[in-house]
Fold this sequence. Notes:
Order of helices and strands: EEEE
CATH superfamily: Immunoglobulins
Strand content: 25-35%
Mean pLDDT: 76
Distance between the termini: 36 Å
Shape: elongated
Helix content: under 10%
Number of helices: 0
Number of domains: 1
Structural class: mainly beta
Largest sheet: 4 strands, antiparallel
CATH architecture: Sandwich
Oligomer: single chain
Low-confidence stretches: none
Amino acid sequence: xxxxxxxxxxxxxxxxxxxxxxxxxxxxxxxxxxxxxxxxxxxxxxxxxxxxxxxxxxxxxxxxxxxxxxxxxxxxxxxxxxxxxxx
Length: 87
């Protein structure tokens, strides 16, 4: 079956209330969504969980494993531990 949509959800640890971040349609993850403190009502110091699922003609997949992230004050983009080597 061909995947037609991907659904990304977020939940603050304090409530674990899941809400949609965005939906990627037509089997293309080329669309991106950059989370922003003001636009997405994120709170500094809060831990957020993310999960993903897909959809096809039969229905929805199970959710992915959850990924936890903490919004740090004055945080910089994370450094890659093992950056890719360009040959």
